[in-house]
Amino acid sequence: MVLMFLNGGGMRGGPLHEQLQGAPLCCVARSAPKYHYFSVGDRFPAMHEGGSGSVVGEVYDLPLAVLRDHLVPVEPPELELGVIELEDGAACLATVLRSSFVDSGELTDITSVGDWRAYLASR
C-alpha cells in the first residue's frame, strides 16, 4: 500500500477515478507551497517542483498492484511517478511532470489557481 496524491482525472468524479479500483480516500489535502502547476494542453494537470504554489488534491491508500496495473498504464507520457511534499510535511507519491517536458509549448501555468477543477470551471 502507498499513499498516492491525485490532483487531476483520478480524483472523485474524474475520468480516471475508476482506475483506483475502489481504493479508499484518506483525505483532501494540499501540497507544500513549492510547486509549479500546469495545464498540459487543457487535457490534464501536472506538478513540477521549484515553484511556490500549493496544489489541491486527494490522498488515497492505494495497493501497489492497482498502481502498477491500472493507474500507471493510463497516465500520459508527460508524467512520471515522483514523491511530493504535502502541506503538513508528509511525503506522498504523485505523478509529476517529467523534466524533459518543462519547456513544452503545451503548458499553461495555473499555479495561481492551484486546483484542477477550479481551473476547468474557469475556462
Automatic annotation (TrEMBL):
Pfam families, per the entry: AH_C (PF21986)
Top-level taxon of the source organism: Bacteria
Every Allophanate hydrolase C-terminal domain range: 3-121
Name of protein: Gamma-glutamylcyclotransferase
Organism lineage: Bacteria, Bacillati, Actinomycetota, Actinomycetes, Pseudonocardiales
